[in-house]
Amino acid sequence: MPNPVLIGAKLKLKRSSLKTVEETITELLAKRDELSASIDGVESEEDLTAIEDSVKENDEEIEGKEEEKTKLEEEIDELEKELERSNQKKPKNRSKLGGNENMDKEQLKELRSALNAYVRSKGAEVRAVDGFKLVDGGALVPEELLTPEKAVEDVVDLLQYVKKVPVKSSAGKYPIIKKSGNRMNTVPELEANPELAKPALTNVLYEIETYRGYIPVSQEVIDDADYDIVGLIDDEIRDQELNTRNFAIATVLKTASPKTIGTLDEIITLLNTGFKTAYQVRLYVSQSMFNDLDLLKDANGRYLLQDDVTVASGKRLKGKEVVVLDDDMIGAQAGDKVGFIGDAKAFCKFFDRKQVSVKWVDNNIYGQLLAGFVRFDVEVADTAAGYYITFTPDAAEPAGA
């Protein structure tokens, strides 16, 4: 089996060569622009011939460097594929706890140390440790090293409301059977089975996206041998991952069929008649819309939303949970009175590649920065499962309407 450490070292050298070639091409293109600009000032045929020769020589160099660049890119692509194939091989010394491939404490300690060394050396040190993998030029952060997510007070995690589908490939299709209300039939003994209604089966196409965010790791932190960089990465990635996937899920919810609603009665009518009873309907509303709803009272001065301490917002409407989101998450800007009403779990699917990785990336201003990557996709599955509403309450709406 090819040694992933050797492959990683080759990749590093090839990427360094590619960067040098790209810089040379940039310089040659700038030189070509200068030569072209100098033609306007030519006063003799001799000077023009000299410039023409220089342009020809420069273009030949550009062509040669472009070919070299293409070759390097192909070699890097092949090495990355070889590295991925090598990483997919099952390690020989992986301990098995309870019949699975979970790591023991000693292996986790060794893996944590290898990841810290990789970050401190800016990718130069790659240890041959079970579970340590390089993906797309970066180090994969195993789930075992990431602490379970803690419930953050006042922060909504939309992932708990949608269907999470673990996937092992970067693209594919996922079959969805829409809720139809079909039922089974009774069958007398020894009689043929009756024909059942055909399910409405559709395929949802997914393509995993890679999301990147910078992790604030200073040179002082890297130089401090006693500092647990993995712990810092854990905290920062968890925070950025939560915000990123919330935004991605909300973006998909906003693609639901639009509907403008002006009164509470219209919302209740939508809840009562707008969905099949099989759907688990909730109201995902902006803070501004929630404020309007929360202030509504009946003729006796009693608030119309029901209290429920078991849900995050503390409120329900006609028994349906109300989930409160930032205005600019479910809407576009502060003050937007909008929301998604429906079954988010049926409406969209969250395709999780289950890959978190870190690597050093170039930055024009700060040089190299450590970046964290997460990979997932969110796609619409059942368009009948929800509506994106805009709430436009009438100024003179009577109390208890």
TrEMBL record:
Q: Which Pfam families match?
A: Phage_capsid
Q: Region (Disordered): which ranges?
A: 35-104
Q: Which residues cross the membrane?
A: none
Which SUPFAM superfamilies does the protein's record reference? Major capsid protein gp5
Q: Where in the cell is it found?
A: Virion
Q: Note the superkingdom of the native organism.
A: Bacteria
Q: Which residues form the Phage capsid-like C-terminal domain?
A: 137-385
Main localization of the protein? virion
Q: What is the protein named?
A: Phage major capsid protein
Which organism does this record belong to?
Bacillus mesophilum
